[in-house]
């Protein structure tokens, strides 16, 4: 009796052996595809080395730039040294100029002192010198009097003896004897003493100058005195 296939769609039924075969082929194909896509180890290393080389090149400084920086640093160092040397030279010159100026000022001061000493009159240690020195002092102090007026009164009062002392007149009786070239008593000498002269009443220049100062106050000038005063 012949058998008829059931009506409707027919479906091929794969055996277990066929299923395994198909799965194996698929697995082998995937493996082959993966191997063909992934590069070999040597090729991968070459690719990585190329990538690293590119990265390293991106961070490296050109040789010309390094030389330029070194040159700038050297120039800056040289400029700093030059500035220090220039300041040292300027300070040395300033010190030398100051020393030269001081030496010049000292020399001028000495020369001025020498000229002043040369101009300063030298008075003889006698009646003529005492009168002349007193006249110069009187002139500087504004005290009137002449050489003749001083000489005339000196000769009358003491005959030119600076140590003359009157021990018999009224002044002596009162305890204040007249002393010196122009016979001045101590109170009068003290009152009319002229600054810059000795405080010793026996000093000839101090005695003459104080007496002339007193006569100028009392009589207008020693030239107006012709007797005891």
Automatic annotation (TrEMBL):
Annotated ranges, domain Transglycosylase SLT: 154-226
Lipoprotein recorded as keyword: no
SUPFAM superfamilies given in the database record: Lysozyme-like
Alphabetical list of Gene3D superfamilies matching this protein: 1.10.530.10
Stretches that traverse the bilayer: 20-38
InterPro entries reported in the protein's UniProt record: Lysozyme-like_dom_sf, Transglycosylase_SLT_dom_1
Top-level taxon of origin: Bacteria
Keywords associated with the record: Membrane, Transmembrane, Transmembrane helix
Keyword Lipid metabolism: no
Protein name: Transglycosylase SLT domain-containing protein
Organism field: Streptomyces lasiicapitis
Phylogenetic classification of the source organism: Bacteria, Bacillati, Actinomycetota, Actinomycetes, Kitasatosporales
